[in-house]
Amino acid sequence: MDTTPDPLHTAAQLQALLGPTSPAALHKEIDHVHPLYRRWIEAAPFAVLATSGPGGLDASPRGDAPGFAVVEDAKTLLLPERRGNQRADSLRNILTDPRVALLFLVPGLGETLRVSGSARIRTAPDLLTRFAVQGKRPFCVLEIAVQSVYFQCARAIQRSGLWQTAPPRAQLDLPTPGAILSALTQGGFDGAGYDRELPARQRATLY
User: Fold this and answer.
1) Does residue 55 sit within a domain?
2) How many other β-carbons are positioned within 10 Å of the β-carbon of residue 56?
3) Are 49 and 27 in contact (CB under 8 A)?
4) Beta-bridge partners for 26
5) What are the distances in angstroms from CA 8 to CA 22, 47, 58?
6) In a shared domain, residues 123 and 72
7) Do 156 and 173 fall into the same domain?
């Protein structure tokens, strides 16, 4: 008979459920960007940034050409903040709680890289110019003091089939951004017009 408590409430109960932690899972975590981990970050064109603030938790995408996150030194990452939806949820959170976490993904690679630390928002003109793309500087640059770095095993990516060939959007049978906006506003938002104009607007405001 299964006697596992539901829900779990203690670390001891959790450890009993999961079993012992493997030595590899412990050895892989360090407090700085090792040269081998640096190669991983420099190859990544995409990351997820997690923050926490008064309004709760936030996880949002960051992406650009590989190497968009710069390893300034073994304890410092630089992450440019480019144009998005201007909600600035991550930045607002960092103003009150500097703790951040990053998950770096490299297409075709099952393992991911996890980095955590604390961030501050930099706006020095020379720093922004350093990260300019197509003549346009980022709004700011996150300077992240690294506290923990380690790779995550490939099982989640393998189970998801994430890097398998993606079907055309038309075959996914999922709502478009405009359809979602129209539904959430009970038809008060011109969803069809939004979808029609979105590709050109994204291309024009990519940087």
Assistant:
1) yes
2) 9
3) no
4) none
5) 22, 31, 25
6) yes
7) no
pTM for the whole structure = 0.92
102 strand-pairing partners: 49, 115
157, 110 Cβ separation under 8 angstroms: yes
Find the radius of gyration of the CA atoms of the chain.
20
With a CB cutoff of 8 Å and minimum separation 6, the contacts of 161 are: none
Intervals of the chain under pLDDT 70: none
Q: In total, how many domains does the chain have?
A: 2
- What is the spatial distance between Cα 61 and Cα 77, in angstroms, rounded to a whole number? 16
Residue 89 contacts by C-beta under 8 Å, 6 or more apart in sequence? Answer: 51, 53, 55, 58, 60
pLDDT in tens, 7-22: 989 989 888 888 888 8
Same-domain status, 56 and 134: yes
Give the DSSP letter of residue 133.
B
Domain range for 90:
23-160
